């Protein structure tokens, strides 16, 4: 199975030349480290940055240059900084081509829960609500199961919803799955993972059609 960087590598293959891309907190931030050669994309963070680059090397961090998750980042030539009102105008105005989010749970109909676990302290929902309400192309980056081994790809989310029927694709440490009207459609499996492994780890309806290829990461 993949680690978090492996998930980010696979998601990076979804990028297209000229895309404006919002990277959510967690695994999605790693995608900036794996931009395929020959394409140019602009990464946006809702705290007011357009033109994020990969994470800085140790000792080269600038504490004033951060992403929405308060991690230090680098910026690319031509990057710009702006207030939250301008940032959310970009999001709500649907000027972002692809949104990549982490999630605690995803349902087979495309519902997503990614901002609150009842009974635990939560700083706030951040920009997640605006992103899922405005974006037309949402990919979720997540581990396939939680720490206890229970599936995070469900028939119905048990946690408070962030958005309803908005996720288009889920990329986990085990598989690439597309959200369809009939459930999760298995598109690819991670190296060393079988279709049966994915089936056992998926609570929601899993559609498997014919031969399923292995992910290509390099």
CATH fold topology of the domain at 4-28 and 94-207: Glutaconate Coenzyme A-transferase
Tell me, rounded to a whole number, the average pLDDT. Answer: 94
Task: Please give the number of β-strands.
Answer: 13
Low-confidence stretches: none
Q: Give me the CATH superfamily of the domain at 4-28 and 94-207.
A: Glutaconate Coenzyme A-transferase
Query: Strands of the biggest beta sheet: in what spatial order?
Result: 4-3-2-1-5-8-10-11-12-13
CATH class of the domain at 4-28 and 94-207: Alpha Beta
**Terminal Cα span:** 16 Å
Characterize the main sheet: 10 strands, mixed
Shape label: globular
Q: Share of helix among residues?
A: 10-25%
Number of helices: 4
> Element order, helices and strands?
HEEEEHEEEHEEEEEHE
Specify Rg, calculated over alpha carbons.
17 Å
Which keywords apply here?
218 residues
Description:
This protein is about 15% helix and about 25% strand. It has a ten-stranded mixed β-sheet. The chain has a domain at about 5-30 and about 95-205: Glutaconate Coenzyme A-transferase, CATH 3.40.1080. It has about 220 residues and is α/β, with parallel strands linked by helices. It is globular and about 45 Å long. The chain has helices at about 5-10, 85-90, 130-135, 195-200; strands at about 20-25, 40-45, 50, 75-80, 100, 105, 110-115, 140, 155, 170, 175-180, 185-190, 205. It contains four helices and 13 strands. Helix 4 (about 195-200) links the parallel strand 12 and strand 13. The model has no long low-confidence stretch (mean pLDDT about 95).
């Amino acid at each position: 199975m993949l680690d978090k960087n492996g998930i980010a590598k696979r998601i990076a293959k979804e990028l297209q030349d000229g895309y404006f891309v919002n990277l959510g907190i967690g695994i999605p931030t790693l995608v900036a480290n794996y931009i395929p050669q020959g394409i140019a994309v602009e990464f946006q963070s809702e705290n007011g940055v357009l033109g994020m680059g990969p994470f800085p090397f140790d000792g080269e961090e600038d504490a004033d240059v951060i992403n929405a998750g308060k991690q230090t980042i680098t910026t690319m030539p031509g990057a710009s900084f702006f207030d939250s009102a301008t940032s959310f105008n970009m999001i709500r105005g649907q000027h972002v081509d692809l949104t990549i989010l982490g999630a605690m749970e995803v349902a087979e109909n495309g519902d997503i829960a990614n901002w609150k676990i009842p009974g635990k302290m939560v700083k706030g929902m951040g920009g997640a609500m605006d992103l899922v309400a405005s974006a037309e192309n949402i990919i979720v980056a997540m581990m396939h199961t939680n720490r206890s081994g229970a599936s995070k790809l469900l028939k119905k989310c048990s946690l408070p919803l962030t958005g309803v029927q908005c996720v288009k694709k889920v990329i986990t440490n085990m598989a690439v799955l597309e959200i369809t009207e009939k459930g999760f459609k298995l598109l690819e499996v991670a190296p060393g993972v079988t279709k049966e492994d994915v089936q056992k780890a998926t609570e929601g309806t899993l559609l498997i059609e014919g031969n399923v290829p292995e992910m290509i990461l390099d």
